[in-house]
Amino acid sequence: MWFQVKAYLKFLWHSKNQHGIHSPFVYKLITKCFYNKKHFEAYELWDEAHKGALESEIVLNVKDFGAGSKIFKSNLRPVSKIAKHVSISKKRAKLMIRLVDYLGVEKALELGTSIGFGSISIAGSGQVNLKTIEACSATSDYAKNQFEKLKLTQITSINLSFAESLAKLGSEEKFDLIFIDGHHDGKATLEYFESLLKYKHNDTLFIFDDIHWSPSMEMSWKHIKTHPEVQVTIDTFQWGFVFFRKEQVKQDFIIRV
């Protein structure tokens, strides 16, 4: 807890808004996407699903394959509490919806479905074909039911470990967006990053969740930023954005969203 407080204070000290950003690509991303006030229909779809989860009385027997939970002490976890405390926040979901629209994402991959709210924010617009991976069968099954209710037929749910799933993906597949929202272990995150590089193209965006979750996650983020194929990174505290655009000058940004 104290580690994250100190990390956030450090983030606030170094972060900027659009002012003082000397990259046209990043400046446009911030002003046209991050700070976009337009209303998107996908916001309503996400709100509908999230409201239903908050009111749900379902309790899931969750098998945690990642670094564990700082919220739950038991594997028996009410859907309402997962939605409230663990799933993607409304603010972040809206940002994801804007990103998908702004970048024109058509194919996406998500590592860590949980109960599906990150998936809904990625694919709720109907324009994205999403493959989402979740090792826990209880949360994966709940998410699948939500996708069916919302008629999000373009979401393919995969109930396997990350390693098993990535081994089955065709090496020729390319994704416009890859969202890594699971495990939260620094060593594992670096391994996934290296494994996922073959699925990118020049304009692919990688998003890493909880980059300041622990010292090991911060260390993995530092390593990712220095990778020779990485050109632009944006630290928004909870999420880390990674761009590979060869035409960009190599730069790292810390931005308040």
From TrEMBL:
InterPro entries (alphabetical): SAM-dependent_MTases_sf
Organism from which the protein derives: Psychroflexus lacisalsi
GO BP terms, alphabetized: methylation
TM region(s), chain numbering: none
Domain of life, per lineage: Bacteria
Keyword Magnesium: no
Protein name: Class I SAM-dependent methyltransferase
Alphabetized UniProt keyword annotations: Methyltransferase, Transferase
Molecular function via GO: methyltransferase activity
